[in-house]
Amino acid sequence: MTVTLAVDMMGGDKGLAVTAPGIRRALQNYSNLHCLLVGRQTDIVSLLGDLSGNPNVEIVQAAEVVDMHESPATALRSKKNSSMRVAINLVAEGRADACVSAGNTGALMATARFVLRMLPGVDRPAIISALPRADSHVHMLDLGANVDSSPEILLQFGLMAVSMVRSLEHVQQPTIGLLNVGSEDIKGSEIIKRAADLFKASEINYVGYVEGDDIFQGEVDIIVCDGFAGNVALKTSEGLAQMLVKVMREEYTRNLWTRLAAFLSIPVLRSFRARVDHRRYNGAVLLGLNGTVVKSHGGADSFAFSHAIEVAREAVENKLLQRLRADFSGSETGKV
Amino acid sequence: MTVTLAVDMMGGDKGLAVTAPGIRRALQNYSNLHCLLVGRQTDIVSLLGDLSGNPNVEIVQAAEVVDMHESPATALRSKKNSSMRVAINLVAEGRADACVSAGNTGALMATARFVLRMLPGVDRPAIISALPRADSHVHMLDLGANVDSSPEILLQFGLMAVSMVRSLEHVQQPTIGLLNVGSEDIKGSEIIKRAADLFKASEINYVGYVEGDDIFQGEVDIIVCDGFAGNVALKTSEGLAQMLVKVMREEYTRNLWTRLAAFLSIPVLRSFRARVDHRRYNGAVLLGLNGTVVKSHGGADSFAFSHAIEVAREAVENKLLQRLRADFSGSETGKV
């Protein structure tokens, strides 16, 4: 089965300097991958190098670029020929199975929602991503598609995540927890408490409240929260990880002796990094849309960007969208 | 000036096994520290060792212990002779300048609020703590005293934090940011947007929205958020740090070669740890009460617990409470 992905080549902090080598890496890994490279044709051609004659690569012209700080409304109204918009159009037209963009999240969500619409039975989209643990990972949503969510919407997020984990990881009854500020029943806001009641009454494998430390250390397969808390948790962990790396680097480069220790530690640090490398978890799915859209981190490097492409490829191969469509088509309230 | 602290010896996951050596460490560091050790007299005596004849130590009997998972209401109603309650009573009676407890946060907050009452002009208490950065630190609140907060309350938190940083660090115009899910003005919930308007109109040094990664990597001196987001951010970072330490340890102990690298890295890892050790940041202040109460992490070890004592000592020496009282006495709305 060939998987055709529309890739927004101009998005992200570094645009083509990251997306072009990212594409090259992804194409090396998968022979059944076909990529529609969306953006300024001349710029793309000049960076493609040995890919220019590759039959698995096709360039689709798009003259405009959505700025990383452009408002969603402006991007939607006045950038109808942006690489982001054209890539999403290709999904809507059925020419691509999914699209990938490192462009600005708000604009991507607004444009994707406008062009693709919601899945029937789903009221609000959510951003979901896998996050690393010592020996596994967790799927967490919403990472920032919404700033607040009703109990009913939180349940819908949970149901969508269950469909996704079933589809991608073939786990039939993934465990699911609600992010709260304490694990006791009495803790939390009224919205969380009412959401907990809905989760308990549903047929999913709800295990109860989880706390922030359960993201990276817990057992639960899926964590549901509103987009504000999810975004704060995600960015806090990014900042902490970067700060720790910075301090560690400073300490290892302090003098000759510490540099020797660093040299001897290379295999250790390399396998440490391989296990917790956030780049291997790059690629968040905009869940709940009538089409598959994967958001790469704006600051991703080419290795990380190739992983976002991998997330899109996996979603298509495992028929994520068809699964969601089937699970949510039954009812207007989205109950599976 | 002698600083007298009431210490809840029974609180925390390990009670006296941590608090007794923590007290010993704190007393070694400060000759002007006087501690009222609150808890079961016979248990305390048996663990005091060489401190038993120390004139800076006094035991205050309290027969009961608040369980780490007891509800605030139960602790308040039925544990009137708990070590936590008696320690807070000592502050209310003026026998201690401040109290320190590693007991359960909800019970501590409820009991302290009931016994000490709010500072005149302050509507809601907040939990504030310093968090480490590579070369500095940030003060963040609310870390979980409330699950949600109005814009007016968020402003009050900001004003209290400014008073605290002025008092403790002698910085006259600390910079202050509001935690949000994006740095643009259009981002965030209505509450955050309205809070931003209040911050802009106030006289404090408000610099705008900050995001989760600004906690450990940013520049701002104070970050204000509601207790839900703050608690999630704090616990997420705790979990991530613990996970990274676990993976690092596993990698360094994998075989003889990696153990050698670990041995040679000891000075590096030690100074790395010294710079980012969360134990040095243990001790959160329950801000806004008419008395100084410091909360130690329930899982703190004796080193961390001694730091919570240090936080209380510093608050007293720098006249934090008098400063807050002066700054908030002017008006019912808490405007300074």
Q: What report would you give on this structure?
A:
The structure is a homodimer of 336-residue chains. Helices cover 47% and strands 17% of the residues of chain A. Chain A is of the alpha/beta class. Chain A has two domains: 3-122 and 288-325, Isopropylmalate Dehydrogenase, CATH 3.40.718; 126-278, Isopropylmalate Dehydrogenase (3-Layer(aba) Sandwich), CATH 3.40.718. The mean pLDDT of chain A is 91. Chains A and B meet through helix 8, helix 9, helix 10 and helix 11 of A and helix 8, helix 9, helix 10 and helix 11 of B.
Question: Secondary-structure map with pairings?
Answer:
The structure is a homodimer of 336-residue chains.
Chain A: E1 3-8, H1 16-29, E2 33-39, H2 41-48, E3 57-61, H3 72-78, H4 83-92, E4 98-101, H5 105-116, E5 126-132, E6 137-141, H6 151-169, E7 175-179, H7 190-201, E8 205-210, H8 213-217, E9 222-224, H9 227-252, H10 256-264, H11 266-276, E10 284-287, E11 292-295, H12 302-317, H13 320-329
Parallel strand pairs in A: 1-2, 1-4, 2-3, 4-11, 6-9, 7-8, 7-9
Antiparallel strand pairs in A: 5-6, 5-10, 10-11
